[in-house]
Amino acid sequence: MSSTETEGRAQVVIVGGGFGGVRVARALARADVDVTLVDRTNHHLFQPLLYQVATGILSPGLIAPALRRVVKKQPNTRTLLADVHDIDPQGKIVRALGPNGQQLDLPYDYLVVAGGATHAYFGHDEWARFAPGMKSIEDARMLRSRILGAYELAELATDEEERDAHLTFVVVGAGPTGVEVTGQLAELAHHVLPDEYRSIDTRQAKIVLLDAAPSVLPSFAPKLQRYTQRRLEKMGVHVRLGTTATDMDTRSITVKGPKGVETITACTKIWAAGVQASPLAATLAKATGTATDRAGRIEVDPDCSLPGAEDVYAIGDMVTTVDRLPGVAQVAMQQGTYVGRLIAARVQGDHTTPAPFRYRDKGSMATIGARQAVADVWGVKITGWVGYLLWCYVHVMFLIGWGNRLGTLYNWVRSLRYARHRGHRLINMSAAKAVEEGRGAA
After folding, report:
1. Could you say which of 5, 160, 180, 437 is catalytic?
2. Which pLDDT does position 441 carry in this prediction?
3. CA 391 to CA 403: how far, in whole Å?
């Protein structure tokens, strides 16, 4: 028994307030432990709906409730706004910096690291300023400013070539995120914005979706892949498969595909092609001597603990297992519940070897613009309106808080009933500044 356990209740530190971290905290709600949930933001983010913030359907608050609110009914849990920068497994201390730069030393008996993932540019990190991705509320707000700012700049352009550059949008990556944001870009161009501009026809916008894979939604069933591609093309999207990005700058992206190398003039690029583990994985790996894979994910044992450190666990997108589980929210949530229950059992004195974590795949789904979606649930392939209704139900039920659920449903119903309604289209920076950020200007 550790020193902190002899002095009182066991101390559990959870790093990361995403899907996995919150599930760990909830699983420990009635355990005889004190829980400290540490995150560098003050909110729990529902990442699957970030693209709807970026395209003006939802406000950020609906998908990002405050962490303090999430755990307010758990008296044994506190939250800290801090950035973890070091982990000492020998001394059992997590070191973090508070908002004012204050050094925080957090002792633990059990540590769970759920740092998530960030964008992967496959060795071209300089592309991040030209083709941002979506992993945070700030990312989504900035993308919304770039997307809507592009139309504002096109409205002001006096040169046709300049106008076309602003009206061309390229999405790199045809997985669920890429498909969903592409579908909403098409909805904006063809149904939301046409009546609002006087010098341009937004329906002339060129929307390109490209991926190195031979199909869209590579992890989905072939039937759903074909349906998705047909729907996107019917919406006017240029789907470019077997095509990789080789270079890009502020005004263009160079790609290599079946027909050779081509440069596409486009001011707005969006990255949805890959992810890599949070830097916390490297910090934890260095501290414990644990190996990582090519994507920076740390290797864990079947019970999600680190090899040789039974009191340290890592879960979610930042880990890799022998099963090679997909990087989706369901994995992190199930791992979080599993680890939370495991810690609760050990605090009660059960130190038997636990059954290994087993992931239950509940299916995959993705929207294709408004009123259309594809879903693979328990082996059943669903498309069209039925798929869309199922997608809505699943996603709204995973939101935290009935206020957020009802608010999200209200916005969805309005966007369906009134095709031109997008109530959250503020540009938080000037259109010119949004483009300047893409140029890497200070």
Report:
1. 180
2. 37
3. 19
Verify whether residue 180 is a known catalytic residue: yes
- Given a contact cutoff of 8 angstroms between Cβ atoms, the answer to whether 362 and 377 are in contact is yes
Task: List the 380-383 sheet strands across, edge first.
Answer: 364-367, 373-377, 380-383
- Domains of the chain plus CATH, in order, are 3-40+82-119+275-347 (3.50.50.60), 125-273+363-438 (3.50.50.100)
Helices (H), 289-383: 329-347
Q: Is the pTM of this model over 0.70?
A: yes
Check whether 244 has a pLDDT greater than 50. Answer: yes
Whole-number pLDDT of residue 246:
96
Alpha helices in 235-354 (DSSP H): 279-288, 329-347
Question: Is it the case that residue 94 has pLDDT exceeding 60?
Answer: yes
User: Is 303:357 a contact under the CB 8 Å cutoff?
Assistant: yes
Can you spell out the DSSP letters for 323-338?
T---SSHHHHHHHHHH
Segment 174-221, tens digit of pLDDT: 999 999 999 999 999 999 999 999 999 999 999 999 999 999 999 999
Tokens linked to 180: 């969903």
Q: Where are the alpha helices (DSSP H) in 71-172?
A: 137-156, 160-166
